[in-house]
Amino acid sequence: MTSRRFKRFTVATIATLTVAALTGCSAAGSGTSSDAPHGKPVTIEFWGSAIGQEKSVDLFNKAHADVQIKYTQISAGSAGGYEKMLNAVKAGNAPCLGQVSYDTIPSFASAGALEDISKYAKPSKDLFAPAAWGLSSVGGQVYGIPVDVGPMALYYRADLFKQYGIEAPATWKDFATAAATVHTSNPNAYLTTLPLSTYDIGALAWQAGGQWFGTKDNAWQVNINDKPSQQVAQYWQGLVDDQLVVAEPAFDTAWYTSIQDGRVLSFVGAAWAVALLEQNAPGLSGKLAVAKLPQWQEGKSVSGNRGGSDNAVLKGCKNPKEATEAAVWLSTNKDSVNSYIKNTGIFPASVSGQNLPVLAQGSDFFNGQKIYDVFSSAAKNTPADWAWGPTMTTLQPQINDGLKLVGAGQETIPKLLDSAQSSTVADMKAHGLTVTK
């Protein structure tokens, strides 16, 4: 997002930042009709990027006479969708609803591009996974309604685990032992790959109890190198140092080949990876299984989250109540969520959505396993206090590039988190944000 502007962050008044941060934004222009004339429905304009989402919108429009959604398909955020939204907010003609990923909500909020919908949204809080609700808020103010989440689990080659005489590791200690067993037995094989994404490392830190960002007393808190995150960093650095993992980016062509050929036996991934595996690795059919993430404490069932998005209410919406209610319906109505699952491949953020019969079925690709039982449990056991920060577009490439250097033996993960901590604090302060550690 090349046009992002930042102002000093105040938790109690973040929604008013648009006056200074986005000159020209006002309630005079919005993607929603003004109070509709008697007998005519309120129209909620909605910009989204998920392919197939329009089918849920069609269901909403058929079920409602008083409110109608006008849907427009736009590019994904990183491909220009977010810049388009921010420019529209600045011009005063933004839609009421916009699809925004959880990690981008804080930067939109800090730019004054979102409406505080707390009074309309909070009655629906218990309808959603706690972690998803927390990611939809900044400083206690709610800015969007959750659509999907990315609960994490361990995907593994059940056939090869049996061949090597190992079981799905219950703990991270067990995981390291299994990694040594595999590579000792076959120097060309690895239990897994090095996490090479900011959001993978973030999800693992999340599971361990880390909290990279937060807000308190009208200021941001930044703790990217906190004790749990460093525990994760040191653990994976140990696997790198012992040459028990291979640095191969997940979901690249070479990675799909490695998983199918048995060079790599497992990976830590989110629920949305199921569809990618089915589409890109047909040779895995009947060979894969899913288990809960290995735990730092034996007997626990803690997970992390990788991905997900909100239908956020953009600044200038004249009908935020109706927009919020429409977003809640899209994310909780049984038919709508079934459509989302079928047509977009999401794992729903709503509690009722996670209990739909379609997710209770066994998967042929996973040899009949009811894999979504694992992901539903992971979603319920993901800590709700994780937050992303307002400078993710700077932090993400820094950690991504650093992890590549780790894979090449030119950097370590603990040092990378230390440098990310200091540079993020400096970056936020440079943009006028108040920061305390």
Measured on Cα atoms, how large is the radius of gyration? 22 Å
What is the CATH superfamily of the largest domain? Periplasmic binding protein-like II
CATH architecture descriptor of the largest domain: 3-Layer(aba) Sandwich
Indicate the proportion of strand residues: 15-25%
CATH class bucket of the largest domain: Alpha Beta
Taking all residues together, what is the mean pLDDT? 91
Tell me roughly what share of residues is in helical segments. 40-55%
CATH topology of the largest domain: D-Maltodextrin-Binding Protein, domain 2
Largest sheet: 7 strands, mixed
Number of helices: 18
Number of domains: 2
- Distance between the amino and carboxyl termini: 26 Å
By secondary-structure content and strand pairing, the structural class works out as alpha/beta
Low-confidence parts lasting 5 or more residues at pLDDT below 50? 1-35
* Shape field: globular
- Count of beta strands: 14
Give a structural overview.
The strands form 4 sheets. Strands 1, 2, 3, 6, 11, 12 and 13 form a 7-stranded mixed sheet that branches. It contains 18 helices and 14 strands. The model is unreliable at 1-35 (pLDDT under 50). Helix 17 packs antiparallel against helix 18 (413-430). It is α/β, with parallel strands linked by helices and 437 residues long.
Summarize it:
By secondary structure, the chain is an alpha/beta fold.
List keywords for this structure.
single chain, 437 residues, alpha/beta, D-Maltodextrin-Binding Protein, domain 2, three-stranded mixed sheet, 18 helices, 16% strand, globular, disordered N terminus
